[in-house]
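User: Round two. Same drill as before: sequence, then structure, for each protein.

Assistant: Same drill it is. First protein:
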Amino acid sequence: MRKKSEKCLQLTLVAAVLLAALFYFWSPGSSKEVDIGPRQDTPIINLLTIKTGDATNGYDIPYHVKEEVRSHLAHNACVCKPDEGSFHIPLSNLLFPRVSAHNFAQAFLEHHPDPESIKHHRAQEYSNFKRRSYSPADALIVAEANTPLQYPIQGVEVQPLKTIIIPGLGLKEETRSDHMVSLTATIGTFDVAATVDMVSIQGVGEKHMVLSSSLLSALNRQLQFVTYTNTVFHPKTADTIQFATKDHQSFFTIKVGHRTNPNLYNSGYQGEYNITALVTIATKTFLRYDKLKDLIDSIRQYYPTVTIVIADDNEHPQPVTGPHIEHYIMPFAKGWFAGRNLAVSQVTTKYVLWVDDDFIFTENTKLENMVDILEKTTLDMVGGAVREVTGYTATYRHTISVDEGGDEGDCLHVRLGYHHVIKGFPNCVVADGVINFFMARTDKVQQVGFDPRFSRQGHLEFFINALGFLHIGSCSDIIVSHASKIKLPWTKTKTEKAYEKFRYLNSNENNIFNEALYFKNRFKCMTSQ
């Protein structure tokens, strides 16, 4: 009797452990909910703005504008003017090419049926772009004069070969007979946009400039007009500036680079999401035209006018026709990632939805929900869930991290799970890898790209390349069905057998996987679940 009781107790403990493990791996995870909406001003940023204003104002001392410097500063009022030719002779345009100007607003809006609506839509898209691309690291922060030098520690940027006023420079020290500061640059020169009486300036237009005055307030007033001009062209770099007195020195950086130009999509301003204008569905097919037909038929049941882009690397392609279908033929067996690259490269809408050719849309395949979360958060991609014929629904959520590993390379870690729940979307979480059914911002996916060397299998490789670049989410309530893969061996067709031959990895593909992660990504090892 006692042995039976002990056996029951052991079975109960084992069952409890298994239940705990199942709960750990399959439960929604941490209940922590995080707001990933576009960043707004915070109390800290507002405080920094006030302090920056205090640092650069308050000196009621007259100054004299240097027009030759002022004219090079940005005034947020750019114009496009053509050269005005003073004379015309044969071939004058070849001998003396003139600058021309083209007014996009006039050329586009004058033929648009509703110019005010398109202007509003453009402004709204640009506002969203700025909110999404904002980073706290871009905010101007001025280190107050504790050294006693005051200077900006971040947030100062200049376009290549352009000029800016350096904000936040100041000196706070005890009154003495002479006050002096110096500035030293590496790939730029200094000047002043205005001069202040009783201030001596040496090194104007050079990499090293010295300012001195017997009146501290006059020197601080002059520091408000110090300009920096980048002199060495580089599309993205930085200049380290030394700011010093006789006894103290400090350093700060000025970012040098072109601004990020917005990539806006004119999908038409409407109160509701226009899926046809916002989304293109992309897929790749190989030896499965029957499955592809079922996918297209299911899409058309719910989204009759959405464009479907198909990449096809069959040896003997069959025509795939119909309204809003683009069918692109590739070299035979070119491969999985090459097909993804081709399909995504042809997408012109704001979002691209990737589906496998054996998926089937149902009433639970709500593309509007995917668009909604992408529009309202900072996510670049959102994955859904795939329901198998057995009734099991998979989301394939993984976190990916990299540990530094020294000369031998770094360590890649892939784990089941996610980071946190998304505020306002209780069925959605943030992860680093999602299932092979996702909607993403077209331009961001195009920038990451798909390594065409992965011809038969590839999924994790894309998300490794996207790590640190794409902000990714996963929603369990947006579901696509998966066509049945259950086949008895003797019922498989010749085409199905051929597909299996190409589908699964061979030794060469394994070598490509190892080479890519070892050499291209510089990993020495990987741990995964």
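Second protein:
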Amino acid sequence: MMSICLISFISLFFLSVSMFILGLLFMYYDLIYFLEWEVLSLQSMSILMTFLFDWMSLLFMSFVLLISSLVILYSKEYMIEDKFINRFIMLVLMFVFSMMLLIISPNLISILLGWDGLGLVSYCLVIYFQNLKSYNAGMLTALSNRIGDVALLMAIAWMLNYGSWNYIFYLEFMINDYCMMIIGLFIMLAAMTKSAQIPFSSWLPAAMAAPTPVSALVHSSTLVTAGVYLLIRFNCLMFGSLLGQYLLLISGLTMFMSGLGANFEFDLKKIIALSTLSQLGLMMMILSMGFSNLAFYHLLTHAMFKALLFMCAGAIIHNMMNSQDIRMMGGLCLNMPLTSSFFNISNLALCGMPFMAGFYSKDLILEMASFSYMNMFIYFIYFFSTGLTVSYSFRLVYYSMVGNFNSMSLHPLNDESWLMLKSMMLLVFMSMISGSLLMWLMFPSPLMISLTINMKMLTMFVCLIGGFTGYLMSLGSLYFYNKSLSLNKFMIFFMNMWFMPFLSTTFIIKMPLNMGMMMKIMDQGWSEYFGSKNLFNKMIYFSKIYQIIHFNNVKLYLLSFLMWIILFFFIN
């Protein structure tokens, strides 16, 4: 009898292939299908469910389904010791279904259903390993995303001004309308929370408490990409407006902050989570400049190598007996050659190694940024953050793959997890070819980008400098940590994501908790304290005194007699 894992894998994989073929047909014939399903008709009221099928939604769905099918196959071996694996698979399927609903919805109400579904199921998945850290991470994730849900509800309320929630009807025509600007503001706030832009960034590394297969799914194609996808649909509101300029600044700072943080982090999963945050910042930056197709292109290529990166990290953690500290690794390429090869391929794709998947999208984005009109600060952030990406990638490879083995001499490291390796093999193939494949499909006529030779070579130069910096940081890190106290303070600031986790948790909750304690004392405590409880305490106190007198009455009588005699003699 086939398990639920294999059934889900086969179904999702074939659905993914069919969606991809349909997407190619829609792209070739330039088709858009808008379907309406009348759910309920009562008197003059009808409840309609609307779906939008175009090349963008179909391609994105095929990528999401492919990654989720491989993640489910991977989970069969990764979660082998879990008694409730069927429940885990059902949660993952609910997660994927919520994402599907969000992708094909041209209606804000059905978008909210998918959006909220993602938020609720992500909470269940983050707290899957039930411990205190998971509960705190799950609560931070859920509450951060609630802000975006409220913003989406406010956008729905403002859409009532137009008489329908199908935003696709009004987007182009009401672009300069005041109401549409307000809706755009709320949509941008919702996307910023879901895609973890500053100041909502702290939940993304915290969500690493979830099982690694979930992290692979969340960080590649589902939860965090929902915000970017929503803004791609609403992109005409961002371009050339104040909202777009604000988003450009915020996403640039997010990219810069996460790149710096990853260079000082030692938790394997957190480094990859911060790299996701950096890439989300890059997508948001190019999107706010009006290049929505480029943002979508990078979204698809990034999904492939990021899912692979997390799967490799999961295989390494699984073999390291659940240790995630990269300082405990080293020399893994000797013990796990195949997994290490996959890990390095996905890392090179992330860095933008020529002719890998990431190179096509990142290089094109940076060249379009060079070609566009922007100030020096944003231009610097684009290229400096790209250098930081290569820096933390090389640092990660240095610590985990190269050098001496730093774990125990008796270790279970092996490359025999065949199901995990099979699920990774297809993603390795896609990490190498998806960039060029999508480039030929999405941009059949090449973009004419006329730049000087120095600006053309700047991307490659920044990558090389970044890689060299990462290598130097790996060599000199222990020296710096021990020698310089002022440098340590800087490192603590960068490692803690500019103190954003503190600002999102303790800073917000400390004052209400203290006020709550005061209110408790004022409301419930004073009558108890000065009334029955205090009377009870006084009675205990006096009874103790009477008890002392009772047990020592002869001593006390003789002592008082002696004191009276002494007093009598002194007075006379």
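The beta strands are 32-42, 45-54.

User: Perfect.
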